[in-house]
Automatic annotation (TrEMBL):
InterPro entries: DinB/YfiT-like (IPR034660), Maleyloyr_isom (IPR017517), MDMPI_metal-binding (IPR024344). It holds the Pfam family MDMPI_N. One of its GO terms (molecular function) is metal ion binding. This is Mycothiol-dependent maleylpyruvate isomerase metal-binding domain-containing protein. Residues 11-147 form the Mycothiol-dependent maleylpyruvate isomerase metal-binding domain. It comes from the Bacteria.
Length: 263
């Protein structure tokens, strides 16, 4: 499979899994807290449903050679979803996200390779793999936000983790708060499992990932790949940290949690 193929396949499995899970939620469940601090479960589903509607309009504009629908369109979609009841959000999410997933699946090989999509907030149009990966990240992390409301040991889907791992370095600088370092410079060797990878996390402004290994790292961090993705996304609080996470030297999980407060 091409890069876009594997990402779109993960979008499908992620949608099917979350839609099935959400179908069993009661009204009380929908009002309960999620992994997103300011949202209840229904609001997470609303965010995903409205995002899917906006994403679908964005893809259709790219396919027809039209400009991005724009912020006014986005605001109208958000306002409509925000005005829904909790049950209406939960009921509307599956169809909205299914439509976006199916649209990605409908792209033939040439479209997956050549289409360029104006997302409205990037400096230039992106390819299908990039746009789909961004949606997969959003879907995967917010699916975790829903599930962790019922299971503190929830983890990210394995196929999504594999598809997202290589692209995680692109969000490091944006997701981090280097002022927390107060001028300190540290190089941590990070090793992930399931899937396996190794890289150096350079804790200096700006925070970055280096594929090369330093001669003498200041510390080491070993953890499941899904936990690494959650750490960068601000979703590795102590109660959500698997026992397999290991640190040595200057690797300090409390510091890293402050560096990556979440988004």
């Amino acid at each position: 499979m091409s890069n876009a193929d594997s990402i779109i396949a993960a979008l499908r499995s992620g949608h099917d899994s979350l839609a099935a899970f959400a179908s069993g939620l009661t009204d009380g469940d929908l009002a309960g807290p999620s992994g997103a601090a300011e949202w209840d479960i229904s609001q997470v589903l609303s965010h995903l449903g409205s995002g899917a509607e906006i994403g679908r309009a964005t893809l259709r504009a790219a396919l027809s050679g039209e400009p991005n629908p724009g912020r006014d369109f986005n605001l109208a979609v958000w306002d409509r979803w925000n005005a829904m009841s909790r049950r209406e959000r939960a009921d509307a999410f599956p169809a909205s996200n299914e439509a976006l997933t199916a649209l990605y699946e409908s792209f033939d090989a040439n479209t997956r390779e050549t289409l360029r999509i104006d997302l409205g907030f990037m400096p230039a149009p992106v390819d299908v793999a990039t746009a789909a990966r961004m949606r997969l990240s959003e879907l995967t992390l917010h699916a975790w936000d829903v599930r962790v409301g019922f299971d503190e040991r929830a983890t990210l889907a394995p196929d999504a983790t594999a598809a997202l791992l290589d692209g995680a370095s692109g969000t490091i600088a944006w997701a981090s708060r280097p002022e927390v370092l107060a001028g300190r410079r540290t190089a941590l060797r990070v090793t992930t499992t399931d899937p396996a990878s190794a890289f150096t996390l350079q804790l200096v402004d700006p925070i970055s990932v280096d594929p090369d290994e330093p001669a003498t790292p200041d510390g080491t961090l070993t953890l499941p790949a899904e936990a690494w993705l959650r750490l960068v996304a601000g979703r590795l609080a102590p109660r959500h940290t698997p026992a397999a996470v290991e640190t040595s030297g200057a690797a300090d999980l409390d510091l890293l949690r402050k560096l990556f407060p979440g988004y």
